Amino acid sequence: MDQLLAIKVFARVVEAGTFTRAADSLQMPKATVTKLIQSLEAHLQVKLLLRTTRRVTVTPDGAAYYERTIRLMSELSELDASLRGAQASPRGRLRIDTGGAIASGILLPALPEFRARYPDLHIDLGVTDRIVDLIGENVDCALRGVAEDSTLISRKIGTVGWTTCATPGYLRRRGKVQHPRDLQAKHAIVGYASARTSRTQPLVFTRGEETVTIDRRPEVTVNEHNAHVAAALAGLGVVQTLDFSVRPHITRRALVRVLGDWPRAPQPIYVVYPPSKHPSAKLRVFVDWVAALMAKVR
Question: pTM of whole model > 0.85?
Fold first, then answer.
């Protein structure tokens, strides 16, 4: 038995909650995962996991073993990094998750520079507007607009502005938007629904001490950011979305900014990752790089 591999697999099963999810995230057959766990239990002569048809439960001995092994694996990773100079040239697979807006508008255009700097890192980018389970799905970090999960480490890395806009054709048909309350009845709204809660986000406008919130049923609702922008470009109505994603369309006059004197408060962006005594070198360099990248976004 490869005991080190068996320990890594055991930790992944505990974090994923099932043998199937662990096998998928490790990219190995489920039968191999099962055999390694059985061999580890036979070697230790204790039961680490209780298996049911739906999930895996950790025994008290298994929980204690897990806590000790993750500390050991973290220290081993740091030792490897210090000896092979991984701090200067980290390597391996880096799994990142983010929404469609940040992926297409910020991260992917700048990723060639990161790849040139760290050519031995293999980037696995998940693009989804749902909030993934970082530990259960074995994701190294995520870029999010909220930092509500207290079980994760969150670092604010910047803010992005909002823009309210529509096509010139739509505005010719329906008239100018002169006040946020015009959106209550006089105009069509293309709403954005959270992929996590299915709730449509209200449109928020602020001028001085006054805040106006428009929270009515939109004529069209989508739950993915790039589709939200596409709906605006199709002339379906007024959208309120992240500024960087529509700025090119405004520059070429495909979209027109409205209510510019009623800006919405900027959206904070966080990088979140599972807690660890020693974050890996590959995670550290990415977090520092993406923080510097977000500092340039206006």
Answer: no
